[in-house]
Amino acid sequence: MTNFFATREESDELLDQFRAIDKNGDGQLSRAELMEGYKKIFGEEANEALVDEAMRKLDSNQSGFIDYSGKKKMILSKR
Q1: Dihedral, CA of residue 12, residue 21, residue 59 and residue 10, to nearest 10
Q2: Helical segments of 1-79, H only
Q3: What predicted TM-score, i.e. pTM, was given to this entire model?
Q4: Who wins on pLDDT, 79 or 27?
Q5: What is the three-class DSSP state of 46?
Q6: 50, 37 Cβ separation under 8 angstroms
Q7: How many angstroms separate the CA atoms of 42 and 34, rounded?
Q8: Which of 11, 18, 30, 44 is the most buried (most CB within 10 A)?
Q9: Do the Cβ atoms of 38 and 46 come closer than 8 Å?
Q10: What end-to-end distance do the CA atoms of the chain give, in Å?
Q11: Mean pLDDT across the stretch 4-26?
């Protein structure tokens, strides 16, 4: 996968954020972890519709989880 980040620091920051949300350290984000991460990042309760939409768009193999590349895709789509 081509690296779309302008700097190594941006890529490292994204990985750090992913790891902070990935509470059980399995390299994947569950819906519950994404909900909790939303609250941690934005300081408010998660918008369930947005979280569900992110899960639908980024859970490419329909496993119920988002992996790091899916999270990366989510961030890049907001640019």
Answers
A1: -20
A2: 8-21, 31-42, 48-58, 68-77
A3: 0.71
A4: 27
A5: coil
A6: no
A7: 12
A8: 18
A9: yes
A10: 18
A11: 81
